[in-house]
Amino acid sequence: MAERLQKVMAEAGIASRRKSEVLITSGHVKVNGKTVTTLGVKVEPSDHVEVDGVPLNAEKLVYYLFYKPRGVVTTVHDEKGRKTVLDFFEDVPERIYPVGRLDYDTSGLLIMTNDGALANRLTHPKYEVKKTYLAKVEGVPTNADLKQLRLGVEIDGRKTAPAKSNLLDSDHKKNNALVQLTIHEGHNHQVKKMLAAVGHPVTKLKRERYGVLDLQSLQPGEYRKLKPIEISKLKGER
Length: 238
Hints:
The chain is built from six helices and 17 strands. By secondary structure, it is α+β, with helices and mostly antiparallel strands.
């Protein structure tokens, strides 16, 4: 069955659909020997697709868990010349990319892979993959604030899905606190906006868990390969 070229590329692990579209429109992709630069082209399984001269299925699928430090951009390239997550994977020959994103000033768990199908599954809202964050916030949230986060808050004209929230620590003298928040959505700056909505702006943020994964003994800037059982669980096979 014919499918859109950018979808086929994403599922083959070349890049996300959006990045695949950029590769297509900028002339990096050939179908059956002819360069394709327009979107909407559909290909059959029998078609021969190349990206920069490399056949679509030439790379093996790889999976890494990365502890992203603060001050690093979650992108493949940065026009401003800032350090990107790929700078930590210079010894990895495969063309990997981040699943989802973390803000420049946010640290924590990030999955790096070239498996487009898994990336789409982990970021698609219908699968409700849970992500847990540790946030240092201004002020000390009340029980009412935490309850509101659990019920959902209004941000950008819509109400967020119910979340799990816990107050882990508080310092009334310094007027700050540590809040743990678990969500399954992935809207832009969502955790920061949710906490700001209940009157507690975030001053520091780290993602501690993503699905079945946690940071374990990793330090900022370090990564490890995912175990086969972890990959299977992320794919929903176990």
